[in-house]
């Protein structure tokens, strides 16, 4: 999609939202802009954002740009606080989504002769069904395993000859533990992992332990689901589905667009979506747009792997800390498992962080003390601030079947 086509697509989206969605009409009025003010890509910054709270405030159907009867499917994400968020898809939206995931699968290296086991949760969450429709459209053999039931996952992998596993990276690490424990020999060659930010160190660990190539896939339910962007075999950033999304990077504090290549919050505008198109949706995900062309030769927009969500960023004695940075530091210490948890406490208004991590094996006291010291040094070096560290018993932290809960607030 060239700049002219992109401008035309954005203009027609803005016209549609102005005509059909009261929230957008009001926001444009508030900002003193009309669809006629959008003449070039540069004008986009004058138009209003959408945030997750808007989906809650307009629950369930307030943001639809089509008639409810035109919807073919509804996905709902449970809110940890307050109302859930609802995303509606028309038949054409579902087809476009399947096509996007199919493209992503192909970019990731999945082939029609692969056996793809999908261990993302099926149901209201977009992960399972999203990957499912795309992998099926590619012509692969799909096993809709859904999340959890790890023993059964292993049985299916072994007996059916699974070659590609799709799940969260934290669940892949858990499966790797079980596969080691049982000494299984599997046919896996590729993993498609997403739905949570993960570090390069965790990637290498999963790749080495499962003997696969681990590919990062990105997406979010509010704009579609998985299939927004994916890595190719070169693992040099994620290729964005350019035909469906327009990406901007903004300063999360000021909301102003940042110069090309700078790191900030990813903002996505959907192109061509019928059911619930979104204008300038603030993803809260921190990344940057990569310059130049990928080694694979594909053109189009490429984003760096997500550093973290701005919501998850902790400020420890004035220093910004993302859980993914903690993971990076832990991954550099031999003898740690990367099953970890961040305990955050509040001491007189100041946040304190203690990192809890399991060692790979049971250790005696001296070895544990040495490992803890090395871990603390690595954390200090990478984060630039001293944080607490505690080794916990192997297997004692809870294992997630979906998105891992990495942060626990303690009194
Ligand atoms: Zn590439």
Strands across the major sheet, in which order? Answer: 4-3-5-6-7-8-9-13
**Cofactors, ions, other ligands:** zinc ion
Terminal-residue CA separation: 51 Å
Largest sheet: 8 strands, mixed
CATH first level of the largest domain: which class? Answer: Alpha Beta
Which range does the strand content fall in?
Answer: 25-35%
Oligomeric state, counting identical vs distinct chains: single chain
**What CATH architecture of the largest domain would you give?**
3-Layer(aba) Sandwich
Which stretches are poorly predicted, pLDDT < 50 over at least 5 residues?
A: none
By helix and strand content, what is the structural category?
alpha/beta
Mean pLDDT: 95
CATH homologous superfamily descriptor of the largest domain? ANL, N-terminal domain
At CATH level 3, the topology of the largest domain is Rossmann fold
Number of DSSP helical runs: 10
Secondary structure: helix percent: 25-40%
Secondary-structure element string: HHHEEHEHEHEHEHEEEEEEEEEEHEEHEE
Secondary structure: number of strands = 20
The total number of structural domains is: 2
Any idea what the radius of gyration is? 22 Å
Shape: globular
């Amino acid at each position: 999609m060239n700049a002219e086509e992109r401008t035309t697509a954005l203009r027609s989206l803005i016209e549609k939202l102005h005509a059909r969605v009261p929230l957008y009409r009001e926001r444009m009025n508030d900002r003193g802009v009309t669809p006629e003010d959008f003449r070039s890509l540069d004008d986009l910054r004058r138009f209003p954002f959408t945030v997750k709270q808007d989906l809650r405030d307009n629950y369930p159907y307030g943001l639809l740009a089509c008639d409810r009867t035109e919807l073919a499917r509804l996905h709902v994400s449970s809110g940890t606080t307050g109302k859930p968020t609802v995303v509606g898809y028309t038949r054409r939206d579902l087809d476009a989504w399947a096509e996007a995931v199919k493209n992503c699968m192909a970019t990731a290296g999945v082939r029609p002769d692969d056996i793809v086991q999908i261990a993302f949760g099926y149901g209201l969450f977009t992960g399972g069904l999203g990957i499912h429709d795309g992998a099926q459209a590619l012509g692969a053999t799909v096993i809709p395993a859904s999340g959890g039931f790890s023993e059964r996952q292993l049985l299916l992998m072994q007996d059916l000859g699974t070659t590609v596993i799709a799940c969260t990276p934290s669940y892949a690490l858990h499966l790797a533990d079980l596969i080691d424990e049982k000494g299984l020999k599997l046919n896996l060659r590729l993993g498609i992992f997403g739905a949570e930010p993960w570090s390069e160190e965790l990637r290498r660990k999963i790749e080495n332990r499962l003997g696969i190539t681990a590919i990062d896939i990105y997406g979010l339910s509010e704009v579609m689901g998985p299939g927004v962007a994916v890595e190719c075999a070169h693992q040099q950033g994620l290729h964005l589905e350019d035909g469906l999304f327009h990406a901007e990077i903004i300063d999360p504090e000021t909301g102003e667009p940042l110069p090309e290549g700078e790191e900030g919050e990813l903002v996505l505008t959907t192109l061509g979506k019928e059911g619930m198109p979104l204008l300038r949706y603030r993803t809260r995900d921190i990344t940057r747009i990569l310059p130049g062309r990928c080694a694979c030769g594909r053109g189009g927009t490429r984003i760096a792997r997500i550093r973290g969500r701005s919501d998850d960023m902790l400020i420890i004695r004035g220093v910004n800390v993302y859980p993914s940075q903690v993971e990076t530091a832990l991954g550099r210490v031999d003898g740690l498992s990367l099953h970890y948890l961040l305990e955050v406490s509040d001491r007189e208004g100041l946040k304190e962080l203690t990192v809890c991590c399991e060692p790979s094996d049971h250790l005696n006291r001296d070895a544990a003390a040495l490992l803890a010291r090395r871990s603390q040094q690595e954390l200090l070096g990478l984060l630039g601030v001293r944080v607490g560290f505690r080794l916990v018993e192997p297997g004692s932290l809870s294992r997630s079947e979906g998105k891992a809960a990495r942060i626990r607030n303690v009194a």
